[in-house]
């Protein structure tokens, strides 16, 4: 696929609230491997990009005003861009696990790139009324996304269906006859599977959240992720968050779609799946590393999450 020019990329980045012309001197620390922009405004804009931050880099993203009332769907680290083993890139590139984030366009945020981080992302900005027409009678169950004045931050796990659509967008489109139609349909497919996942989130009364509260629940999530072999006591999580227990549970569930313990177990099973396939650990090694003394219980929990026993999972090609 043809890449957009650097000037085009900078122009569209400004539309996405990135102050590139204020940060032009600092942009030299970013190595852009791939950028493609599909301008379907005023209803939708799609940006696909891969970049490496050679040094730590931060900026404040301002509200996106190219669409008055809209949503930003950011699919993070959802594809392999072929750059993982390129000779002139450092061998210890860091990248977050795959996930999707949803925010309103009017929300400001602090964006941080760690040194030698590899960012692979598909961003979709879409006008609320346009999106609601596709949801039709099902839109009310997602009303928390369509309050034009609401401030929220939603993170959702990746799914195999989303990964498949992303692969089609990146790798099967070089001979597409009608690219705007192709990408708009694929973007809507991504959103279809994402909303399917959102419909299964734990029920919670959505409330306004502050940037500080969002930051704190991420600190809690990161602390949990760093201790997958032993669940941290709720008292320690409350201390990290600076909230009372009830507030922490509500905000955490609102952002991540699962309660604290359910989310912890989900992370353990995702890590178990990775250890079995990528690290090629045995079932017992994986279970013990993640703090399971009862391997039968580990096997049942894994099968409940992944739909198959750990041994079968490890023997299959991803």
UniProtKB/TrEMBL annotation:
- Please list the GO terms describing molecular function: DNA-binding transcription factor activity; sequence-specific DNA binding
Which InterPro entries does this UniProt record tie to the protein?
A: Homeodomain-like_sf, HTH_AraC, HTH_AraC-typ_CS, PchR_regulatory_protein
Q: Does the keyword Transcription regulation apply?
A: yes
Record-linked Pfam families: HTH_18
Q: Does the keyword Transcription apply?
A: yes
Can you give the residue ranges of the HTH araC/xylS-type domain? 218-316
Instruction: Give the matching PROSITE patterns.
Output: HTH_ARAC_FAMILY_1, HTH_ARAC_FAMILY_2
Question: What are the protein's UniProt keywords?
Answer: DNA-binding, Transcription, Transcription regulation
The protein depicted here goes by the name AraC family transcriptional regulator
Q: What is the lineage of its organism?
A: Bacteria, Pseudomonadati, Bacteroidota, Cytophagia, Cytophagales
